[in-house]
Amino acid sequence: MSKPHRPTSSNDAPRGGRARSAGDILGKIGDTAFKRFGFVQGAVVSRWGEIVGERYAKVSSPESIRFPAGRKSGGVLTLLVEGAHAPLMQHLTPLIIDRVNRFFGYEAVNRLVFRQGRPPASPPPLNRPALRAVPKELGEGLRQIVDPELRACLEALAARLESSNGPPLVDKPEDTPVPVIIRSE
Question: Are residues 59 and 82 in contact, defined by beta-carbon separation less than 8 angstroms?
Answer without folding.
Answer: yes
